[in-house]
Each structure stands twice: as C-alpha cells, then as structure tokens.
C-alpha cells in the first residue's frame, strides 16, 4: 500500500482586503502575500504586531480610535466592514490558516519529506483556525462562524492524519498501528462530514459544499477500507484466519462503497481506488481460499469483533501572537507605560502559578484514577451487556431472512447427498463384482494347473491371466485407486453436511427457536443487584471525571479572559501586590469545588473496589455466556455460508461418480466376457487332457472306468461345479 497514488486534499481560498486606514506599505505587504512559506511568516508577523497594537490603542469596537476595516467574505464574495481592530486580526489569522492549507495541498507527497511538510502545514492550518475560533467573535462574517471554523479544523486535522498514514505505510509500521491511524482519519472526516451535512452549514458554504461532501464521504469509506485491510493483516500475523477473512471482506465492501462515491472525481482518485482494489481483492481471495481448503476456521461476524479505535497522532499547532521569534520585536512597546507592562506580566505569572498548582493536583489524581480503572478492566459501556441477549443479532437475522425465501434449502442438500451416496454405492458394488470375478477366475486357473500336474505359482503370486483379463485387472486397479481417494473426500463431505444440517434446519425454522438456541445468562436477583450497584458506582466515577474536566475548563477560561491591564495603568506601584491578591480571590470558589471533587475520589474508588469484589462471580458467568453466545452465532453463520459450498461439492461428487459408474459398468461387462472366455478355454484344455488318458484294463470293474478323476469329484473344474458368471 506504500505505493498507492495519493488522494487530493481540500484547501481554502484567502480573503481579500478592502478599506483600512492604515499605513499603505504595511497594508500591501500584509494582504498581498506570496503563496509560499515566506507569506506565512509575513502574516504571522503582522498578526503579532496587530496584537501589540490593539493592547495599547483603543481601536476596538466602539472605542475612540476605531476605524472602518473591510474584507471580502469568501463564500458570498460580499464586502464586510467592521470598526474593530480585532476584525483585522481575525481576517489575517483566517488567511494564515488558508495559506497553510493551500501549501499542504500543493505538495504531491511522493517523498517522505513531502509527507512531513504537508502534515505540518495542515496542523498549522488547524492551529490558526482553532485560535480564531477560541479567541475572536464568530459574528464577523459567515466564513468565520463557529460551524465553518469547526469544519475547517476537522478537515485540516484529517488531512494531517492522512499524511501521517501515508508516511506510516511507507515506513512499514505495524499493521495494528496503521489500522488505528487510518481509523482516526475516518473519525476526523466523519466529524467534517457531519458539519457538511448540517443544513445551516451547507447554506453558508454555498456551491462548494457538494464537492467537499462528495470527496469527504468517499474518503471515509476508503480509509475505513484501509483500516480493515491492516486489521486483516494483523489477524494474518496472529494466525487468526477466520478473522482475516471477515476483515478483508469488510475492507472490500467499504472500498466498493468508496468507488461508488468516487464518480466524477479526478483521475488521481480513480488510480488510487484501482490500486487499492488490486491489493484488497487479492488479499481477500487468497485468505478465503486458504480458509476454505486449509484452515477451516469459523469466520466471525464483523460486529462481534472489537472495533478499531483511532489513534490521534496529529494536533492543531498553537498560535502564539507574542512569540518574538515569530513576530519580531514589539514595535509599539513605547506606547504602554513600562510599569503597567511589567505588572501585567507579573500578574500573568501569578495566574500561571495558580493554574500549575491546580493542574498538578488534578493530574496526580487523574493518574491514580486511570491506573485504578485500567487494573479493574471495567468498561462502563460493556459491563452490562444483557441487552444483547434479548434479540437475535443482525448478522443472524440476515441469514434467517435469506433462508426464509429458500424453504427447500435443507431438503435440497439432503437429496443431493442421498443421490451422491447412491451413485457411490453403485460404483463400489460394480468394482467389488469385478474384483470377485477376477479372484474366482484366478482360483479356477490354479485348480486347472494343479489338475494338469503343473507346478502352480508361489502362494500369493497369481497365475498369468489371459490378455483380456490382464487388461481388466489393470483398469480395475486404476478405478479402485481413484475410488479409494474419492471415498475419503466423500466421507469428509458427509461429515461436513452432518455438521451443518442441524444448524441449517434451525435457521430455516421459527425465529423463536433460533432465539432459544442462543445462550443467555441466568442471573439471580442477588446477581442483578450486584450488577446494578456496580453500574451505579461506575456512573459516579464518570460523573466525577466529567465534573473535574468541566471545572478545569472553567478555570482555564477564567484565567484566559482575566485582563486587568486597565486597572494596572491606574494603580500605584506600591499597591500592585494588594491588587493581585484581590483579583486572584475570584478563583477561590472554583478552587474549592475542585478540592471537593479531588477529595471524593478516595471514597468513590473504595466503593468501586468493594462492588467489584462482589461482581467477580457475576463477571465470570457473564463472560462465559458471552463467549458461548458469540461462538454459537459464529457457528450458525458458518453453517449458512457453508451451504452453497456443500451443494457445489455435492454436485461435483455426483458428476465424478456418475462418470466413474459408467466406466465401471463397461468394465464389468468386459470382465464377465473375459471370464467366460477364460472358463471356456479351461474346459477345452480339460477335455483334451481326458482324451489323452490310457484305456481301462479289462480286469478292472466297469464302474471304475466311469469314475472321474478325484479332483473332478471334489468339484474341481466341472462345468456344472463352476460358479455362475
């Protein structure tokens, strides 16, 4: 897959600047940047200097120095004007993200370096749009609304992850890791697709919405196919041949969906799809053939296997408007009193210290909680899976429905196997009769040799047969050898039929019987109480987590919005420490809430430990039932899927034995004729020998002359004593 042609990427147009009463040279260099890395650097510098400017001069909305600022809205082409310096910052930040997206999409990504550069550009684009979403109003223009920015972020992160996936395949990383990286690409694109399918977002985007949606939907199925391809490769490495088949089959199904959605896409997309189809199609055919003829493992239902969880290995690279390495020196530094500037920095450090202290406590408790939950191996979503036993799984319902429209499935299979058995028996009888004829002829030939006084061949060495019988014997041996080999296959086929016939009858019957055949847990009232108590405490754990995350977010937002620059300018230097203390008191209440949350963890985990001890027996019973349930479902599905193969092999067996029966019947007729000829020849020889004997002596009693030789009296080769042919 490392050589698969690259998929195209989505990129954004840059906004065009309109009126802004600012220095003409600055404006020109900031809004007409070259489409390269230098352009990104220019936008970052301008954005940083605007940040310094707006913190010193009242150019914000409804402030004294505010001037009209105009930019063109991307999707409608309309000019939007605001008297707010933050609007200029927002538009520059949008263009920074758009330019990074453009540069990321321009590279063909055929080299390792190209993949890395594109990945970095898309992460930078996501960072610019994230900063724009989190720090600026969303009402400036449609292209900077909350919905559009979220869409852009997910698109950029998805494309960055896609570049990382290409690099991982090029490096031949482990199959499971590649599958997780690909699954995360799918997750990002699904989030983007949800935004594209939203009617409000669609109306904002205009005509490009359909093009983006088609490409993103196609990529969702395509990278889902890539994920399952590598899950199949992992199953192959683990020698789980049944899982390998279902993963490759799923990958093939998803790829076919991607191909359907790729109509109208450029040739690069079609090339990638064709290439991937060659890989997945070949893998699936080989895996299915190997499993059918060599491994014979049950192929599980896809929904019974653990889903592939995405591994997000990219992130939105943050924008720092005050980083001097990016923005250069602050050209407006002299416009703010140094004391106020220094005091603001000191207050920022106090806020940062407060946040560090709180986060150290949160992270310590979170680490203990995560380790504890990992050791418990309790997933709140699956600890109670009783609902799965109340209905027939979809994969089984599908098989029952398919058999309901084919009521003669079992009858046809049984009849087919009966016909095969009949033909098999006929062939065996014919070959046995031929063998018996040959053995009888051999016995008669020995008796003749003994009667004639000739030394018979050593025991175990048959006398030389006639040419006709030799040919019959040779053909009979050949047919017997073929029959014996085919007999083993026939026996195995009957075993397979007996294995699956009961399951097919069950699937063809009423759904109530199918449901009754599936195992289900038998929990006592005490067991149910134990389970409910565990679920309640797990819910408390999640509630504690959610509250902790929410309080942390609130604290961060408060600190981010806490700007006391105006107060610092009017406060005496000697009063700065007191002002800091008063301002920091606003965080006391949320700190109390966090302390209470952290303190509650010990009691919650103790209760969870006690509940888990009581749950141990119930857990073991549920795990055993779930294993039996999954095994039963897989067995029934395997029986359904084996039907067509059994019918095909049965027909092949009938055709084979019908042909062999015809040949055996002809050989039998030939054997009978040859044996009759050989017997007639022996009779002629015997009559000649009798004529050669001397006449009887006169003194001998007359009855003695009429006696037959002792060998004939013993039933030797008298025609009347020969077995019927």
TrEMBL record:
BRO1 domain residues: 27-369
Chain segments carrying region Disordered: 684-725
InterPro entries with a match to the protein in the record: ALIX_V_dom, BRO1_dom, BRO1_sf
A Gene Ontology biological process term: protein transport to vacuole involved in ubiquitin-dependent protein catabolic process via the multivesicular body sorting pathway
Coiled coil stretches, renumbered: 424-454, 534-561
Protein name per the record: PTN23 phosphatase
Gene: Ptpn23
SMART domains named among the record's database cross-references: BRO1
Keywords associated with the record: Coiled coil, Cytoplasm, Endosome
Record CDD domains: BRO1_HD-PTP_like (cd09239), V_HD-PTP_like (cd09234)
Main location: cytoplasm
Gene Ontology CC: endosome
Compartments in which it is found: Cytoplasm; Endosome
Record keyword Coiled coil present: yes
